[in-house]
Design a protein that fits this description.
Elements: E1 2-5, E2 13-16, H1 20-29, H2 38-42, H3 44-47, H4 56-66, H5 72-91, H6 101-118, H7 123-129, H8 142-147
Antiparallel strand pairs: 1-2
Length: 159
């Protein structure tokens, strides 16, 4: 059981109970009975019909397709790659010089995901593999995107 202080919007303290069986029941066994949080659905204009935003039978199909990438042995094999790429990032920093940590970790993630999941070194290779070209966006345009009834990926805000 974990004690968490509630946000300013909710007074009091919340207690969360984390049990493997209950988590599996919500995420796997009874997943069809739950809907995504509105926060996840708000990103649908940016992410499309992705695993994070989809629901129902489509979500279930996507989840089965991606499941092998997250088996325990596979995830363990990602650790050395993640450590090496993180070391490379840290070595590129100059002592005493400021870095944009959001950019640095976004860049790190864009190297880790293609390398661990597809054995690709260049993030651009992953884009060609899945036939999309990412469009940059900023958090300030998310409210505009989430309010659109007909999302249009070509209209994403640029940095």
């Amino acid at each position: 059981m974990v004690r968490l202080r509630a946000s300013a919007l909710v007074r009091g303290v919340c207690f969360w109970r984390f049990e493997h069986g209950l988590i599996e029941q919500v995420l796997v066994t009874d997943a069809k009975h739950y809907i995504k949080h509105f926060g996840a659905r708000a990103f649908k204009p940016v992410l499309g019909n992705a695993l994070v935003t989809s629901e129902g039978a489509f979500w279930h199909r996507q989840r089965k397709l991606i499941q092998p990438a997250f088996l325990k042995a596979r995830v363990r094999s990602y650790a050395p790659i993640m450590v090496e790429l993180t070391k490379q990032m840290l070595e590129s920093w100059t002592p005493g010089k400021s870095v944009r940590i959001d950019y640095e970790f976004e860049s790190l993630t864009s190297k880790i995901a293609p390398k661990t999941l597809f054995d690709l070194v260049d993030p651009g290779e992953a884009n060609r593999l899945i036939a999309i070209q990412p469009r940059p966006y900023t958090p300030s345009c998310l409210s505009e995107l989430s309010s659109q009834h007909q999302p249009n990926r070509s209209r994403l805000c640029s940095q």
